[in-house]
Amino acid sequence: MEYFGSGHLSRSGVSVIEWKRCLCAQASVSNYSRGTTRMSLFQRARSNLMWVMMSDVVAKGATIFVTIYLARVLGVTEFGVLGLGIAIASTLWPLVDLGTNGYGTREIARNRSNAHTLLPSLNSMRLTASVVLIAASAVVIELIGFEESKKWTVLATLLYMTTYAITPDWVVRGLERMSIGFVINGFTAVGFILGATILVSGPEDATTAGLVRSFSFAIGAIAGLIILSRLEGVRFRFSAQLDDWLALIKQTYHFLINRVATNLGQYIPFFAVSVMLTDIDTGLFAAPHRLYIVAVGGMAAITSAIYPILTDLHQKDPEKFRRFQRKLVDYILLLFIPAAGLGIIASDRLMNLIFGTEYLPAASVLTIMLLTLPLLAMRSLYMFTLLSAGYEKYAFPANMAGVIIQLIIAVNLVPTMGVEGAAIGMLAGELTSATILISLSTKKIGVGSPLQAETFTVLGITGVLICLQLWREWHLGITIGISLIAYAAYGLKTGLIPLNKLINRRS
Question: pLDDT at residue 486 above 90?
Fold first, then answer.
């Protein structure tokens, strides 16, 4: 593939005028590029992860707080309607993004000067697609005959597609300027929290809650565009060039279909519950499902931090790429396997603490979803492993296989088992996709399987802790304290917690 700074016109369809504008701004970007090149791999990963984790704490903290607030204020039924709107918006989002997120981040990571041309082209295409899709959705909702209150709540949440379409977060990831991403999420979080707590006070405010969520993303997006323009000279101007858009879609196609498959996998069980069961069941399923989506976002934050590094490493040093990917597997499983263990021993207490007794019937759903998290993490990491190495076309069949399994199980189990059947479908779907993606990554790229001694050790530690808790029936705080000590000792022993490096850097 030809790149924008190589002296040729890019195949992605960027015009000569835009390409020349890119060259004029290339000097400032190349200075930053040389700075990141001088940083060690450990420094780059640490810096990216530090900012991404801070950003994710702000974003997910706001999401959890508002989710709990809305679940209690709106009630089970109206919270379920809001959840349905969010599920529809999130499922349709890939048709707005059109694969630009993954493609744009990768191309900017390969050549930072691409940011000047890709931001206006890709975001203009996303903005146009969002307007068309919302209009089409409004027609479909009217034809289906949604109840009046439900219709406006769903449409309010669909506005998210337009407000989020202009966000430059994918550019920030490609440039490895994760601190700007932190600011974007900060503005979004503040707008979300203030809007929800001030404007939403009862079940009648479900539509307002949808609007608050949508416009909070607009606040973050506008802040990000202003900061990116001032700090990096990367500006967004609407550019309606159909030929360029069609050429770009040819480049982003595999990213698009992958995103469609992954989003379907996250929301098919939710739709199965909303269609086959009652509004109350939908609300019960929505509560743990929103927590699950928060975890999905957390995993996405981790992969977004390391995606540009993996892309860069695969180009320059494939062996270091494989070693780094293996280290990531160990870190991520050390994070998500204990979370699965927590679901086994404390799901009912978590549901009662977070959402209240009204949502206790969904505690078993939370258990299954937490058990799904390690599989979700491996599916996501190995998918991004393929994407960073340029094998994105192989990821779609794996993700789609999981979607098909989820659909089959949901159709058969939801009518008989209720919300638990939908959760089992999620578990089976993630297991299917993760297995295929791991197999493809090992064969195509040569990375290792997660089923190695380190993984079995973490599973063993978690199993022992679960048995101790079930046997002794300690206070949950005691078990969590013992767990932290055990996992920290394991991390120090294996070098996952690089204590010597941290001490040396401080001294």
Answer: no
Distance CA 17, CA 41 (A): 36
Q: Are 279 and 81 in contact (CB under 8 A)?
A: yes
What span, in angstroms and rounded, lies between the C-alpha atoms of 307 and 315?
Answer: 13
Do 104 and 212 lie in a common domain? yes
Q: Say whether both 146 and 260 belong to one domain.
A: no
Query: Counting beta carbons within 10 angstroms of the beta carbon of residue 161, is it exposed (0 to 12), middle (13 to 18) or buried (19 or more)?
Result: buried
Residue 173 lies in a domain: yes
DSSP 17-37: HHHHHHHHHHHHHHHHHHHHH
When comparing pLDDT for 38 and 469, which is higher?
Answer: 469
pLDDT at 432: 94
Co-location of 362 and 420 in the same domain: yes
**CB within 8 A of 350, min separation 6: which ones?**
342, 363, 366
Backbone angles phi, psi at 81, to 5 degrees: -65, -45
Do the beta carbons of residue 109 and residue 48 sit within 8 Å?
no
Q: Give the Cα-Cα-Cα angle 506, 51, 189 (nearest 5 degrees).
A: 140
Least confident span in 184-188, 241-245, 265-269, 321-325 = 241-245
Residue 325 is part of which domain span?
253-507
In a shared domain, residues 95 and 235: yes
Is there a single domain that holds both residue 182 and residue 312? no
Nearest residue to 283 via CA among 340, 343, 206, 215: 206
Same domain, 331 and 475: yes
pLDDT tens for residues 8-42? 333 333 443 343 343 344 444 444 444 444 455 55
> Residue 226: CB partners within 8 Å, gap ≥ 6?
none
As given in the structure block, the two tokens for residue 18 are 């835009």
Longest distance between any two alpha carbons in the chain, whole Å: 71
Among 240, 270, 288, the domain boundary falls at: 240
Q: Is the dihedral of CA 138, 142, 146, 151 positive or negative?
A: positive
The candidate with the shortest Cα–Cα distance to 223, out of 192, 180, 179, 194, is: 180
Residue 173, CA distances (Å) to 109, 191, 228 in order: 8, 22, 12
- Residues contacting 385, CB < 8 A, separation 6+: 310, 325, 441, 445, 447
Separation of alpha carbons 18 and 106, rounded Å: 19
Residues 417 and 363 in one domain: yes
pLDDT at 31: 43
The three-class DSSP label of residue 497 is coil
Identify whether the C-beta of residue 343 lies closer than 8 Å to the C-beta of residue 362.
no
List pLDDT tens digits, range 215-246.
999 999 999 999 988 988 888 888 877 777 88
Q: Estimate the share of the chain in helix, then strand, then coil, as percent rounded to the nearest 5.
A: 90, 0, 10
